[in-house]
Every structure is written in C-alpha cells, then in structure tokens.
UniProtKB/TrEMBL annotation:
Bias (Polar residues) ranges: 43-53
Pfam families to which the protein is assigned, alphabetical: NAD_binding_8
Domain of life of the native organism: Eukaryota
Coiled coil spans: none
Region annotation (Disordered) ranges: 35-73
Name of protein: FAD/NAD(P)-binding oxidoreductase family protein
C-alpha cells in the first residue's frame, strides 16, 4: 500500500474511459527536433532566443518573480520561452506522473492513471484537505460548503461514477427545494429539475474520500509547486527551491494566476498560450450563521434549500447548508448559509485574495447582508445580526470561456492540462476532463513517447463564451438543458 503524505503524518491511501481524439495537431517546426540520440530535452530555438538547459547541467534556479508581476510581463515571458522537446524514449518501464492540483479533475486523472497501471503523485495546496472548488469549512458545529454547492449528472460515464459514490455512502440526492428569488421576496421554486447531488458531510469529504482505496497514488499537501524544469529526460518539480521529485510527465490541474506563473517559464509555450486565453470571474463568498431561521420570503410556505437570486448585484446565490446537509426542515440552530455575489460585484470589489483588507471585508459583508435583506423582501435593517461571518474572495472563481475539449496535451513537452473550464464550469466537466487526460497520458506512455505527433491535442483550439449560472453550470437544470454531453466512451 502506497503511503500518502498529509502534513507530515503518514496515512495509507480507482475508473476507466477513453476519449476518441479525432484531431491530431502536428507542428513540423517542433517535430523536426526529434532526434533519438539525445537524452535531454531539446529546445526549439525558432521560438525564442533565450538560453536553455544543457545536457550535463542541473536544473538552473531562476530568479523568483515578485508577487506583483504585471500580467503583461508574465505574458511576454510566456510567449518568448522556448519549447521543451523530450527526444529520448521514456526513462523507465514504470513511469510516474506529477499532477499539480487536487481538485476533482486532478484526482480523477490520478485514478484513471492507476486504472491503467501508472503511478502518480498529486500535489495540492490545501491546508485542510483536498478538493479545490469542493471546499468545505468546519467551525465548531457549523459546516459551510463555501464553493461548489451541489452538482447534477448528464454524462453516462460520470453517472456510473456518481452511482459508485452513492453506493459507498459518499454522496446522496438532495431533496430540498431550490428556485429563483427575485428582489422583494418573490420566490419561484423549480417545479422539475434533474437529481441534485451533494456530498454527505460537505463537499470536501468527497474529495478526501476519492483516493481512499488507491495504492499507486501519493498525495503531498500542503505543497505549492513553484517551478517545473526539464533535465535528463524528466520533469523536476520544486517548491520554493525544495526538490519535490522527478517525473516522466506532468499534469496542470489548476488554473488562474498561479498556474500562469508556473507555465510562464516552463518551456511549454503552446500550453501556456492556451491557459492564458482562459478568462475567469471573481466572486465573493459570505459564510454566515444565524441563531434563528431566516424569514421566509413572500408567500413561501416552506424553507428553501437554495435560491438563485435575481436583480441584486451583491448576491447571486443563497444556500442553506444546515438544511441541505441534515436533510431536515427543522435543522439548526445555528443556521449556516453560504451567499455568493455576482461576478460584476466581485470585479468591482476585487483585492488580493491572499491579503484582504479589513475595511474591504467589512464593506463586502455589509453590502451582501443588505442584498440578502432585499432578496427576502425585508425592511432595511431588520435582518438579525449573524452570530458568525466570514468573507472570502474567489479571485479565479469560474471560467467564462472554453475551448470545448476534454483536455490539452503537449507530447513534446509531455505535459497536459485538465479542468472543468475545458468543457464548462461544473463538477461533471471537471470529472470528464480528468478522466480523459488520465486515459490519454496512459496511452501516450504505453506508446513509449515515440510518436508524439499522434498525441497532440487541444494546443490550438479556439475559445468561445461559456453560459451558465453565476455559480456554475448544472447540466439539465433550467437554462443549462442545452449543455452537450462530451463524446466519451469507456475504455480498458
């Protein structure tokens, strides 16, 4: 049984499918550098004039860029860097893959690799647990899902996985009422909707349980991979100068400015360009616990579990965590709610999310509570003061554009990308993406890496706008009925 590293504690720590790639992207300028005599990655000098790692040299330490590096400077570095081209066969019969990011896509990529007999190491920054957007906060007896609220299922492969989770008691269908809440307290319940699924004890418990039966996956957290460098046919990962291992291939399973910085000097300009084209919204989350239930809006006769709020800038969603997780109309106290702002409100009040000024936090809290008051149709100042509050800015909350493909893979640099944004903005999209990339990399490794032009995918796809709710897509729910199911098929 492989060991899993969690905050220096050792703990003992599985899904198959195949995406039929119909488009092989060849790049003659790059493939012309494939000379099997070299054991180190070759650098395509037609892309850049900067120096490259030479054979016999160790990975060179690069000067750390400051946190405040401008986006333009990062873009210049990204587009001028040279292409890493691994020219030698894979180094061993037992390859290992580094997966940077422990959200849904990264975890399922690791599981798919294990199904195909490939070892991997998942690096995640989570202090409290895995999950990415499947975040849950536990404060004493209070529980808040402070990112993903629920998910729906439309894809047959994902449905099989969700059924498996249900049988294991990890997820269940949520039976509470949800709907739309218009300013002034006008609530309209969804009369029919697809089954909504939630993790039994909060979304994070699902993420932490996904790898519980794995034997070929190592998890390292909290760990913030700061650089990936090619040397002697392998990728060398480090965390602020600390070596974190060498790998035959890498997976970038997160996005935003941290992923952009990581890729800006990685020697993977084609992947970096695609990541740079991704646009993300900013959304504020307010966690609030109340001693008493919130007043019911208008003519509502029963408490609702969640509502998409319309016509209020500071609030786009309000979800009753206590009712959702207890599955009882009389749960509480305390009554724990998650409120999300609109992206426009998030953008207007955006600050560095790692260091939110107290004045901004207080301002956002008051504006969002006033928005809740307005949504419920209450008199100004009549909403009872919460007994607990916490604000958090999701600076890279949800994608607003997408290439509409399951994954991206650069076979010359032996690196891929997975994430919900490649197909949409849902847990289902994240799952499909991770499974597809895991299967694709397994096929690539099985080939020995000798036919890279057959495995290039997604390096030049155009992006198009992404539609959905402010808090994501829910296939089959209301306006999301037209979201297309990715063409996937289960593979061996």
């Amino acid at each position: 049984m492989a060991t899993t590293v969690y905050n220096n504690h050792l703990l003992t720590s599985s899904f198959i499918h195949h995406f039929p790639y119909t488009k092989s992207l060849k790049h003659p300028t790059l493939t012309s550098f494939l000379t099997p005599s070299s054991s180190s990655p070759t650098i395509n000098k037609t892309l850049c004039s900067s120096s490259s790692t030479k054979e016999g040299d160790g990975p060179k330490k690069r000067r750390r860029s400051s946190y405040g590096s401008s986006r333009k400077s990062v873009l210049r570095k990204t587009f001028k860097q040279e292409q890493v081209t691994f020219t030698s066969p894979l180094s061993s019969d037992d390859p290992v893959v580094a997966i940077i990011g422990g959200g849904m896509s990264g975890l399922l990529c690791a599981l798919q690799l294990e199904k195909r007999g490939v070892r991997s190491t998942v690096f995640d920054t989570g202090i409290h647990g895995l999950g990415g957007r499947m975040g849950t906060r536990y404060i004493d007896e209070m529980v808040f899902d402070h990112a993903a609220q629920f998910f729906t299922v439309s894809n047959s492969v994902f449905r099989e996985l969700v059924d498996e989770w249900s049988q294991k008691g990890l997820v269940r269908q949520s039976q509470g009422v949800i709907g739309e809440l218009e300013a002034g307290g006008h609530f309209f319940p969804f009369l029919s909707s697809p089954p909504r699924y939630i993790a039994v004890n909060g979304m994070r418990t699902l993420a932490d349980s996904i790898l519980s039966q794995s034997s070929m996956i190592e998890v390292v957290r909290p760990c913030w991979i700061s650089s990936i460098e090619p040397y002697n046919g392998m990728w060398h990962l480090s965390e602020n100068g600390k070596h974190r291992g060498q790998f035959d291939a890498t997976v970038i399973a997160h996005n935003g400015k941290c992923a952009n910085r990581l890729l800006s000097t990685s020697g993977l300009p084609l992947i970096a360009r695609q990541m740079k084209r991704l646009e993300l919204s900013s959304i504020w989350a307010l966690l609030a616990a109340f001693e008493d239930p919130l007043p019911l809006p208008g003519k509502t006769v029963a408490p609702f579990e969640g509502a998409f709020v319309k016509g209020i800038d500071s609030v786009s969603w309000m979800g009753n965590n206590t009712q959702k997780l207890s599955n009882s109309p009389n749960a509480g106290p305390p009554h724990c709610w998650t409120f999300f702002s609109t992206p426009s409100f998030g953008k207007r009040n955006k600050v560095p999310q790692e260091n939110i000024p107290n004045a901004t936090a207080e301002k956002v809290k008051q504006l969002m509570l006033a928005g809740v008051e307005n949504a419920l149709g209450l008199e100004t100042g009549s909403l009872k003061k919460p007994i607990y509050t916490r604000v958090q800015l999701w600076g890279a909350a949800l994608p607003t554009n997408t290439p509409g493909i399951p994954c991206i893979f650069d076979p010359l640099g032996r690196t891929g990308i997975c994430g919900d944004w490649l197909l949409g903005s849902s847990l289902e999209a994240a799952a499909i993406s991770g499974l597809s990339l895991g299967n694709h990399i397994a096929d690539f490794l099985k080939s020995g890496g000798s036919r890279p032009d057959e495995f290039a995918v997604g390096l030049h796809e155009d992006f198009h706008p992404l539609q959905g709710h402010d808090i994501g897509q829910f296939p089959g729910l209301e306006s999301n009925k037209d979201i297309c199911e990715a063409e996937v098929q289960v593979g061996a």
